[in-house]
Design brief:
This is VWFA domain-containing protein. InterPro entries: VWF_A (IPR002035), vWFA_dom_sf (IPR036465). It contains 3 helices and 4 strands, in the order E-H-E-E-H-H-E. It is α/β, with parallel strands linked by helices. Strand 1, helix 1 and strand 2 form a beta-alpha-beta unit. The N terminus is likely disordered.
């Protein structure tokens, strides 16, 4: 899994609105690469590192598995500690990966040309 989060190139003077569809299904607890305990732990580390460098962004984190579980919005960098706490509290859940449900819930959160949607999943 690779996460690319470009923050030093601006599309406009407006704040970015990023929507992350984050898979927390059971399969995410599978073995990651040799440097991480699981795919899920690797994903959490990659997200945390990417958000550490974010400037002027509204970030919606939508967690999903069989269903959409939560949608939380954070203003970065101001609310980075709250986002970090949220990420640390995430754990894989039982169930399958319903990407369509996540997409259907995340797409309406996109507002304009400065909106971006990211899918974070092993499915």
């Amino acid at each position: 899994m690779c996460l690319l989060f470009i923050t030093n190139q601006s599309v406009s003077a407006r704040t970015f609105r990023d929507v992350f569809l984050v898979d927390v299904s059971a399969s995410m607890s599978g073995q990651g690469d040799k440097s991480s305990a699981s795919v899920f732990e690797h994903m959490r580390t990659e997200l945390r590192d990417a958000f550490d460098t974010a400037k002027d962004a509204q970030v919606d984190l939508l967690t999903f598995g069989t269903n959409v579980f939560t949608t939380n919005r954070f203003e970065l960098p101001k609310e980075l500690p709250s986002m970090d706490e949220f990420l640390q509290g995430l754990t894989p859940r039982t169930g399958r990966t319903d990407i369509y449900a996540a997409w259907a819930a995340g797409a309406p959160l996109l507002q304009d040309s400065t909106s971006r949607l990211f899918l974070i999943s092993d499915g």
